[in-house]
Amino acid sequence: MSAAASLDAVWRKLSLWADRFVPVAAGPDIEVRRRAQLFVTFSALGAVFGGLFAAFYFAIGHPWGGWIVAACTLAMWAAPWIVRAAGLEAAGNLYALVLVLGFSGLTAIEGGVHGHAVAWLAVVPLCASILVDQALGRWWCAICLAVVAAFCAMDFADLIPPPFYPPRWDKTITAAGYLSLTLFMAVLGIFFERGRRHSLAKLHTALDALSNANSRLKELDRERAEFLGIAAHDLRSPLNTIIGFAQLAGRYSPDASETQRDHMETIIRASNHMLELLNRFLSMRAIEEGRLEMQIERCDLRRTAKGIVESYRGKAQAKGLHLVFEAMGGVSPFVKADQQSLVQIVDNLLSNAIKFSPRDRPVIVRVLVNDGGGTAAVEVQDAGPGLSEADQAQLYGKFARLSARPTGGESSSGLGLSIVKRLAEAMGGRLECRSRLGEGATFGLTLPAVAPPAADAPEPAVATARAEVSRLRV
Fold this sequence. Notes:
Radius of gyration: 40 Å
Distance between the termini: 78 Å
């Protein structure tokens, strides 16, 4: 077995052993777990070095040094259990304190700065930074610098403490100390790099698994959306058939009772609602998949809005609402827009205003021109319950459910505003809402204005807008 393979085997065994002491609070945090594993591993490494050094000191007749190193060794053996019980930061501080006290004690009994022990103080901030965090390393670096500075000051003052071991072992202890320091730092670096690579490999494995799962989810989502799109598209044909036959049955069945006619109307309303949901779902899917095709052209904003208002007069009167159309200025504004999308947006805004307005209140559709800004706008103002700040925050979300409820028991899919906002932005316009709770709401669509055509074609555009609204509903 090669040296690298042997080192990998040792590292894997140490990692498995270190996993037993990872704090429960670390949870799924990969970095905290990695540092905890390193801490436990380096504690074991330090305990091995300490045990060998303690035995060496006792063997050469240096009991004071042996007891100091033995005490540090016991603290290092206890470090894994401290990590599990008190956490990484508390164990790191205790670990650093033991090392500072131990190396300071050895420096004091082995000739001060002329001995090897003072050099081991460099290990303390390094271990604190690698094993816990850089902030802890900076603090212990300052402490170790202060300790070394104190011993240097003693040396300048000729206060050199005498060694507590037999003089004949002086060169041996110095050589053993520096050789051990070099070996310890090398092993420290190797183990740190092994731990980093091991953690990085696990991270890459997890990322690959996540990427594969994400790709699979995207594929499943695509298949789901495709299936729903096909189902929604195919459902429109039988729904139109149901609506058509229900209308015929209600219109050409003179013997039908009032109850039967009511049932037919219920079938027609429910079918129209389902058809509206399907159309909106298909519109949203086309927008999200980038399949939305628009024909941007010059559109007469006033005539389009007026046509939509006229198509809703019957519905507004049935709810007892006063539908008002206002056109500011003498010249009809023209805008850059897709005619079908423009009709769909204004139709949705006006439908919502009627849906959420109480009886005997006005619903105002207003066309405005901003000569200075090069834009024109259509606003729909209602006197309904208004929107709270929480409602406005989620106003354009898909399937958003707001606090306001339709006043006539109408249904709401939660898709309309999400769709029309995207349509407005796709045409280079913007959709805005001004509302306060209890004071109604005003929705405004602003679009870039363009010059009118050379010959202004009159009224037929109103009929065109009405026909477009009817087509969208069916």
